[in-house]
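Q: Sequence in, structure out?
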Amino acid sequence: MVTGPAPLRKKIIQTRSPQFLRLVTLLAVIALGLTLRGFGYAAGLPFTVVKYGGSALWGAMVYLLVALFAARSRPAAIAVAALLIAISVELFRLYHTPWLDAFRLTTAGALLLGRVFSLWNMLAYAIGIAAACAFDPARRTALRPRR
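A: Exactly. Output:
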């Protein structure tokens, strides 16, 4: 139980809100994904762990971004929207123009849009989105019994 002045209690409770926890989780997922892609091979991790682990984390990131903007939506609806966005981005890799291909060759372009179409990426996105949905702080808050 939190004790102390009421404003302090309110501030502590706000930092435990589902949206705050989603934001913290989003930042952690981004950091983990960048670390995995940047240092995974140097750490001796297998190709599949680095490639598809990064893709699963990217899917989790999309879920968390959608959840931040659609805060009042049910986690299942957020997951469906995130999966549609992730699949759309993957399908967008089939579209090529010189300026778009030049952007894809940059680090930002590779991280945001990717370079090569892969059905396996879609599976990895779905796994990441499902994991993010399963561990969504809002889901745990909604399932918690009320006093």
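The first helix runs from residue 6 to 14.
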